[in-house]
């Protein structure tokens, strides 16, 4: 997941928490946004850093504010220019951005290049925790998965418990209906590993969690997948 996608999901989660009065998680999302802002251009001309305008931003239109400290040919500072970076989704490039403000010293093209690179940067594992506070569910080397091979194609699934209603399910989610698990686990869902990150984003409401299932649940789900979905025994 890159930084701009993470910002969008944090904003969505923040607004959901504010709408539902969940101030505890709203504070956590504001803190996460501050951390993300600290990863945006700062120094080397962007001496006042970058802020995310949470009031004016939406999940599909993010507004960032920055300023650039200009220098003359002698290396002396000669003033600032103020800018906003407006980021919107793109079907071809992932996202587009537009830089506002005065084009002093033809700086806007440079600002656009710097921010495009920064916003497209991939985040490391420590920053991929679910936005609603559940445990990490991204694929790890030791994550228990189910691999089903049909002909030449292999499909890999993870098994999770969730407290979210069915309306939050990713399109490829399979619900495991067998009543073999304690009620407090919530629903058990089977998600193809390629869709786990997307599902986590859908659950980023501040109200629901998506947590990797216990080993015995994974084992039961594997037998069910082979038997019920693919019509064969493991």
Topology:
Blueprint lengths: L2 H18 L2 H15 L12 E3 L9 E10 L5 E14 L3 E6 L7 H13 L26 E5 L2 E10 L11 E3 L10 E6 L3 H7 L7 E3 L2 H15 L5
Antiparallel strand pairs: 1-2, 2-3, 3-4, 5-6, 6-8, 6-9, 7-8
Helix pairs in contact: 1-2
Low-confidence stretches: 124-142
Please give the number of β-strands: 9
CA radius of gyration: 22 Å
Helix vs. strand class: alpha+beta
Strand content: 25-35%
Write down the overall mean pLDDT: 79
Largest sheet: 5 strands, antiparallel
- Element-by-element helix/strand order: HHEEEEHEEEEHEH
- The first-to-last residue Cα distance is 34 Å
Give the CA-based shape. elongated
Helices, by number, come to 5
Number of domains: 2
User: How much helix, percentage-wise, in residues?
Assistant: 25-40%
Describe this structure as you would to a colleague.
By secondary structure, the protein is α+β, with helices and mostly antiparallel strands. The chain folds into 2 domains: about 5-125, no CATH class; about 145-230. About 30% of the residues lie in helices and about 25% in strands. The chain contains 5 helices and 9 strands, in the order H-H-E-E-E-E-H-E-E-E-E-H-E-H. It has helices at about 5-20, 25-35, 105-120, 195-200, 215-230; strands spanning about 50, 60-70, 75-90, 95-100, 145-150, 155-160, 175, 185-190, 210. Strands 5, 6, 7, 8 and 9 form a 5-stranded antiparallel sheet that branches. It is elongated, with a radius of gyration of 22 Å. It starts with a helix and ends in a 5-residue tail after the last helix. About 25% of the residues are buried.
